[in-house]
Amino acid sequence: MKRIAFLLIAVATVAGVVAFTAPASGHADEAASPIASPIYGVKIPAGYRDWKLIAVDQLLIPGMADQLRAQFGNDLAIKAFKEGTLPFPDGAIIAATHWTRVPSENNNEVLDGPFPGAQSFVVGSPVNVQFMVKDSKKYAATGGWGFADFKDGKPGDKALHETCFPCHRPAKDRDYVFTRYAPAP
Amino acid sequence: MKRIAFLLVAVAAVAGFVADSAPASGHADGEAAPIFGIKIPPGYRDWKLISVAHEEGNLNDLRALLGNDVAIDAYRKGRLPFPDGTIIARLAWNYVSSEENNKVFGRSQSFVAGSATNVQFMVKDSIKYAATGGWGFAQFKDGKPADEALLKTCFPCHVPVKDRDFVFTRYAP
């Protein structure tokens, strides 16, 4: 009987662990990229589109860029954001997804009645996705962060990646991370 | 031996179910919204992202649409109508210019999510909410539900997108 009880506990534990660690979904197009970013060697982490949301923002440079953006974090990153842990622990990954911002004519037409003058903007097409990967030893020269920029699954060139860290340096007191966690309404 | 095997399967199934249905974080709130009786679903802030939006004009906010697992699965498979159990959360924050970011870039180009304004939910239950396209609606501000008058405006506004099961937001690729 003891042996059966042990078996039950063992199986239950394994089942629990498997259920807990199973990836939420398997998107073929979100599989890990075979190509790594220059300098840092960062690949697209599998399943990042399913990570939890850190915040949203808009980049607006008139005539050059108009984007809606979302930042996602893996579990280590989200935990650090929620607990205000700085610096971020090794293993933390932040993903920044950028889309074009486009007016939603369909929404505006519908909303004009109840919300006169509604100006609804939604995401258009994907622009790029960027990652910051924390490894305080491997990336010691760049504040402990490795950087990556991908467009259509292809990494940006070396010149582009050389601009990442200098731009993030002014946010040193926030461990080089611009984004703040958006509170639950 | 057969009995042991059955027990093993049963225990494994229960363990898997418990692990799967555990809320990601605890934001459970007490008060329910009028008309539809919807409470804030625990852990909704940790749900997966459907898309992002920006309302200019009077609302002037940045928005994130999050979905529970049923909703996300339906979006990805293009399943319409959404199945019962679907919940879509619309979070909104004041649209603010980020002074700290703009200082770095040397120009005003970064607009971020400021303070939270409110959160809305659409809950699918084709029987309970048959009179409103199968959807129940709710809005909360600081944990308090909006009044009946406001919630009466939800469904009429969503009627024009009937061909998308009354849901405005499309999944962001």
Can you count the beta strands of chain B?
6
What is the first-to-last residue Cα distance of chain B?
50 Å
Largest interface: A-B, 63 and 69 residues
CATH 2nd-level architecture of chain B: 3-Layer(bba) Sandwich
Estimated radius of gyration of chain B: 20 Å
N- and C-termini, Cα separation of chain A: 52 Å
Our count of helices of chain A gives 5
Enumerate the spans of chain B where pLDDT stays under 50 for 5 or more consecutive residues. 4-27
Beta-strand content bin of chain B: 25-35%
Radius of gyration of chain A: 21 Å
Question: At the third CATH level, what is the topology name of chain B?
Answer: Chalcone isomerase
Instruction: Tally the beta strands of chain A.
Output: 6
The helix fraction of chain B, in percent, is 25-40%
Mean pLDDT of chain B: 87
> Structural class of the helices, strands and pairings of chain B?
alpha+beta
Binned strand content of chain A: 25-35%
> What's the rounded overall pLDDT mean of chain A?
85
The main sheet of chain A comes to: 6 strands, antiparallel
Give a structural overview.
The complex is a heterodimer of chains A (185) and B (173). In chain A, 24% of the residues lie in helices and 30% in strands. Chain A is of the alpha+beta class and 185 residues long. Chain A has a domain at 35-101 and 127-174. Chain A has a six-stranded antiparallel β-sheet with strand order 1-2-3-4-5-6. The model of chain A is unreliable at 4-30 (pLDDT under 50). Chain B has 173 residues and is an alpha+beta fold. Chain B has one domain: Chalcone isomerase (3-Layer(bba) Sandwich). Chain B is 26% helix and 29% strand. Chain B has helices at residues 2-21, 69-77, 99-105, 148-151, 154-158, and strands at 48-56, 61-67, 87-97, 110-124, 135-141, 144-145. Chain B is globular, with a radius of gyration of 20 Å.
